[in-house]
Amino acid sequence: MAAPAGGYLGDLKDDEKMKFKDPLLTGLDKDSDDDGMESLDLEASAKSEEGSVSRSSSLIANFRLDDDYDGETRDLFIIVDDPEKHTSTLEAYITFRVTTKTSRPEFDGTEFSVRRRYNDFLWIRQRLEEKHPTHLVPPLPEKHSLKRMDRFSTEFLRVRQTALQKFLTRLADHPVLSFDKCFQIFLTAKAWEFQAHKKQGSGFLSRVSDSLHSMSASYMMKNRPPEFAVMHDYITLLSDKLGVMDRISQRVSKEQNDYMAELLEWGPCYTLWANSEDQLTGALLTMSKAVDECVKAVKDLIDETDSRFSQPLKEYLLYSECIKTVLRRRDAIQNQYDMVVEELSKRKDEKENIKSSDQTYSIGAFLGKDPEDVKQQKHEKLEQQISDLIRQMESLNDKTVVANADLKADMDRWHKHKQRDLRETFMNMADLQIVYYEKCLTLWENTIRTIQNKDHIQLPSTAAMSENHDSALP
Length: 474
Hints:
- By secondary structure, the protein is α+β, with helices and mostly antiparallel strands.
- The chain is 63% helix and 7% strand.
- The protein has a four-stranded antiparallel sheet with strand order 1-2-3-4.
- Strand 3 and strand 4 (111-117) form a beta hairpin.
- Helix 7 packs across helix 9, helix 8 runs antiparallel to helix 9 (281-356) and helix 9 packs antiparallel against helix 11 (371-452).
- This is PX domain-containing protein.
């Protein structure tokens, strides 16, 4: 017989309770034909940028994953690149090339190249969540999260491509999700095959039902294990902190855009002034040029901060919501287990009461049945119910143990990624600020030296000014 409620948890050790200690406190899709397809070359506007995502599929041969912090041997590499615009009579959309290289025997070859649109990425994520509800599936960027950008612009596509690349890389590194059959189909199936598989997904109502069940379980939860209570509190706190940082980042970005707008109005003032001041023309034009360079520096800072700081923060905000969702699913499984245990206890008590009960005045006796036969029938019925409940309890106990192990393993992996990613994000922010202020400092220092160059400015000398002053006296 299975252990009673909570028996599968065991006693927590002190180091297990502190496992998730907050480090911030301690340090309907249809593919159209390719008619109207337009290739969008991201390299064309970023040839001078270091670290830009290349369209060349030859990168796979030398592709290095930043997630390789454990030195593990990887056998699945994925590149997302080459965005193309497709235009049909009903819609316009973007597809990305997904190139895969692998040595896994489950695949029919070693290299594959397919085209997928954003809704296809949504499909694979939903299927993975449905098939692996207690595993942490990485988040996807919101479909229209970059409202200030045109969704067909080069800047938008670069940010979206980077996010999709990170999503597939994390899936490829997952020891369970990367072996899922649907994921293999996503990476290898041709367009018509892929569309056929997409139609085999679970219905909308079933997903809504599962979601409502998980939400209700989180509110009915009575005996959540302490380690998962700590995990829930940590994720809630982390989400709150990231949310504050995201809101402040948006305010700073707005102020920087306002500042850039003021600079755009300020620079032409010097140019117009220079038209009426012959002796100050050089200085005024130098100031106008300096302000224009400041505008470029501010714009670069805004764009880089958005892609290298704001977007990673938003990603981990989405990640925190994914973790909360998995926690609710885990709670739903344990809640079912606790309810079955409670029901089993009631049935056992009823069984004990039947042994000493008098069935003379029972409904069956009034219908002419022998009281002892009535008692025997009730006893047999309870025996069957107890047997069924025991089987349910054992099955749910196994599911709970598996759910706990899945979530803890994924959280351990997520914490390692998070610590590295957030460190890199904060260092990127610091580097961007240093580069911006160094650029501005150098710019204004050069401006001072240029203005001080008398040959360039042609300022009147002090002696000439004195002579003019003396000649003006009576």
